Amino acid sequence: MPISETPHLAARAAFYAVIACWWIFGLTFWLRKRPPQAREAKRDWTSLIGLLLQAAAYFMVWFHPLQRKQFSPVASGSQAAEWGLAVLTVAIAVASVWLVNAAARRLGKQWALAARLVEGHELIQDGPYRIVRNPIYTGMFGMLLATGLAAAQWIPLLIAIVLFIAGTYIRMRTEERLLSAAFGSEFEAYARRVPALIPGIY
User: Fold this and answer.
1) Does residue 86 sit within a domain?
2) What are the DSSP calls for the chain, one per residue?
3) Residue 201 lies inside a defined structural domain of this protein
4) Residue range of the domain that includes 50
5) Do the domain assignments include residue 89?
6) Number of domains composing the chain
7) In this structure, what CATH number is given to the domain that contains residue 62?
């Protein structure tokens, strides 16, 4: 195979692997066992603004799929660099799907699109919530990054990252206001101990 075709093959391999991860990502929520309906105690619809920004970020990375002739501009023509980045992209997608799946299962009846508290709400601190306070958002960011690396150009990816971080910040702040009001010092201690989104960074 000519060297010039190898990066294109790496791009396609990563792209279709990420697509497969997106299917699993979607099935995590579609096919998950529905817990008993919990009675809602409090909800904050402000978080939906953040959700819209996150959706706009995903739109950015999907807008021009597979338009690049090479997978990475870092080392044009280098098989090792292109395949290395492809493997990294797929690894990010797989890890993100696992994290979202584990977090959604642990969250159970407390999961919702808009920030809310339910009766008997529990401050979950185990499972993936020992790693970060918002593992579903961490996984969503990982899927954004993997999709951008596999399908988008660099400028749209950077714009998407900014939009996603802004949207995620709004959602996290909204949800954590509710948790802080409900659990007080217990939540504050948890927040000091466990990072919000990315271990070792934030």
Assistant:
1) yes
2) --GGGHHHHHHHHHHHHHHHHHHHHHHHHHSSPPPPPPPEEEEETTHHHHHHHHHHHHHHHHSSTT--SSS-SSSTT-HHHHHHHHHHHHHHHHHHHHHHHHHHHHHGGG--SSEEEETT-----SGGGGT-S-HHHHHHHHHHHHHHHHHS-HHHHHHHHHHHHHHHHHHHHHHHHHHHHHHTHHHHHHHHHS-SSSTTT-
3) no
4) 3-193
5) yes
6) 1
7) 1.20.120.1630
Question: Contact 57/163 with Cβ under 8 angstroms?
Answer: yes
Instruction: Count CA atoms within 13 Å of residue 104 on its CB side.
Output: 23
Residue 108 maps to a domain: yes
Pairing of strands 115-118, 40-44: antiparallel
Q: What is this structure's pTM?
A: 0.85
Question: Quick one: which of 91, 85, 60, 59 has its CA closest to 71?
Answer: 85
59 vs 52: CA distance, rounded Å? 10
Note down pLDDT in tens along the chain; length 202 residues: 444 444 578 888 888 999 999 999 988 777 665 555 556 556 677 888 999 999 999 998 887 654 554 444 444 557 888 888 899 999 999 999 999 999 988 988 888 877 888 888 899 999 999 999 999 999 999 999 999 988 877 888 899 999 999 999 999 999 999 999 999 999 999 999 999 999 888 8
